[in-house]
Design goal:
Helix content: 25-40%
Mean pLDDT: 95
Structural class: alpha+beta
Radius of gyration: 17 Å
Order of helices and strands: EHEEHEEEHEEEEEHHHH
Length: 239
């Protein structure tokens, strides 16, 4: 698996690059070397709200976002709206459905990906557990959520890891989500989320090791195609 430790300069560029990972792989013509499965670790440069592909405006406090001039964006995957920014490590795993046909089943995909993520995070935060469908929690509080984007032959599985995030911003910008896991028991955001309280460098190393990911962004075999696709998406969709 290839490894990409790269954060773009803007929030929009980061979302475009994430989508470009799966689009460029799925659009591969079949000529030359096949696209590589990839782990990307990255972070938003500033606080922003990221809505899911099917999220409704009712999921966010629009007035507060406007007052704070907080960007409200929309990603390519499903799931509910999130707040991201410095202190929230983002992970993106690009997996081939041809090499891993079982991943076409969403429940199986959750088990495989989040099993690996939990194994990695547990090296740094031993008390981490998996609750609900696919949440990583610490002492019953959510530290990580995720979403998927399926294409014909590839899946992008990406999510968040709160390690040193200003948690009070979540309740400022988000309403209560439309769907909640049973273990939440209707707790508001302030009572439901928590930081991992660890060094981001340790977190990155542990996740990279559990995925056996190697290489650098500058030498990624499909870097040119991914960048070209991200620029196209920036112009056609994210601007």
């Amino acid at each position: 698996m290839q490894f990409v430790d790269f954060s773009a300069q803007t929030c929009l560029e980061n979302l475009a690059l994430d989508e470009a990972l799966v689009e460029s792989a799925d659009n591969w013509s079949g000529e030359g070397e096949s696209p590589f499965e990839t782990l990307r670790l990255w972070e938003m440069p500033s606080i922003c709200v990221v809505m899911g592909r099917g999220s409704k405006p009712s999921e966010i406090h629009e007035r507060e976002c406007a007052l704070d001039q907080t960007l409200v964006l929309r990603r390519c995957s499903g799931g509910a709206s999130i707040v991201a920014g410095p202190g929230c490590l983002m992970y993106s795993v690009l997996l081939s459905l041809e090499r891993n046909p079982g991943m076409r089943d969403i429940d199986y995909a959750h088990r495989i990906v989040m099993g690996k993520m939990m194994t990695g995070v547990a090296k740094i935060v031993p008390e981490i557990v998996l609750q609900g469908t696919c949440d990583l929690t610490r002492a019953g509080k959510k530290c990580s959520g995720n979403a998927l984007r399926y294409k014909r032959n590839w899946v992008l599985y990406h999510g968040t890891l709160l390690y040193d995030f200003p948690l009070e911003l979540i309740s400022r910008y988000l309403t209560m989500p439309p769907r909640m896991p049973d273990y939440r028991v209707s707790r508001d955001h302030d009572a439901f989320v928590a930081n991992l309280d660890c060094e981001v460098s340790q977190l990155k190393d542990a996740i990279r090791q559990v995925w056996h990911a190697a290489g650098e962004w500058e030498s990624h075999p499909f870097r040119t195609q991914i960048i070209a696709e991200s620029q196209k998406l920036l112009k056609s969709k994210y601007q």
